[in-house]
Amino acid sequence: MNQPFLPFARPVIDEDTIAAVGDVLRSGWITSGPKVALFEQQLSAWCGGRPVRTFNSGTCTMEIALRIAGIGPGDEVITTPISWVATANVILEVGATPVFADIDPVTRNLDLDAVEAAITPRTRAIIPVYLSGLPVDMNRLYALAARHDLRVIEDAAQALGSTWRGRHIGAFGDLVSFSFQANKNVTSTEGGCLVVNNAAEATLAEKYRLQGVTRSGLDGLDVDVLGGKFNMTDVAAAVGIGQFAHIERITARRKALARLYFSLFGGDFSVTTGAQLPVADFENSNWHMFQLVLPERMPRAVFMAQMLERQIGIGYHYPAIHLLTMYRARGFTDGMFPVAERVGRQIVSLPMFTTMTDADVARAVDAVKTVLAA
């Protein structure tokens, strides 16, 4: 009880990155500039040469992806109830209708059979979410989208460094959105990027991120679409570049921490406690989070309080979106997506960050076992 507090997440910014931010501040160019361009080049190379544009959040990237895809009023977009609420909110932002499909009880990602059952003549796109960095079955996802002529906007906010059959998420597919928010594996303090398919989509993304502006010559300026103010600064890009340089090491360490969690929980943990461990995927997942689904006998607030008494930080990601007040007002009710509702009620995220020690993991596991046993 007297040990130091172990947070759920902790960004790690090295001294070289801090120095690089200082250099940007001294340069006199602190908004979008050479650092943003360099960061985009590095991300593009990571994504197999596909065009990448950076933004000031991983929320606006999805909204802009929907706009690039031409989705608006009268259109439906299918997504998961288990995500940060931004995933559904952006659908409303463009005037389209969010349609939820239930999740797979094992992976906690979209159940693709439920997705197919939810498709109507108004469906225009699917937004899958890769919870904790674990992708859906990408082959099935894109086969389904092709069969129904749908766009795919991948909410890969948590999945930078994740792969599918040896290829980086973002290196293939349709529109792919990543987040660099503070608790992500790679952060720019705040920010995100969008992977697009071609130069025309990249140009449109640039317009949407800065008031719809197109410049030409020394003094030419025109606006032909309604854009916003979503550009990334060079200050943020400098942090992102410093972080991104270590992505392989970051991913490897998180995988090692996840392996240790599984080892210390032991093979009979789920049987003896009723709690559900995540899928032990060490090929595709970047292990952005290590999440448990608690047994129904253990109220999540009670579990979190008892973990905090033991100085262990706990998160929960996420409550079911369709049961939030704004979505209930749109006609969503209890019982519509029972798997998502159970997971959203009982899921917790254990400490997971690059500088965690093996002793930190052991301490977290011991606390979980003690609380569940009580």
What does the model show?
Helix 1 packs antiparallel against helix 8 and helix 9 (247-265) runs parallel beside helix 14. 39% of the residues lie in helices and 14% in strands. By secondary structure, the protein is an alpha/beta fold. It has a 7-stranded mixed beta sheet, with helices on both faces. The model has no long low-confidence stretch (mean pLDDT 97).
Helix content class? 25-40%
Quote the distance from N terminus to C terminus.
16 Å
Topology, number of strands: 13
Question: Counting H and I runs of at least 4 residues, what is the number of helices?
Answer: 14
Could you describe the largest sheet, including whether it forms a barrel?
7 strands, mixed
On the 0 to 100 scale, the average pLDDT is 97
- The topology string of helices and strands comes to HHEHEHEHEHEEEEEHEEHHHEHHHEH
Per DSSP, what share of the residues sits in E-state strands of 2 or more residues?
Answer: 5-15%
CATH architecture call of the largest domain: 3-Layer(aba) Sandwich
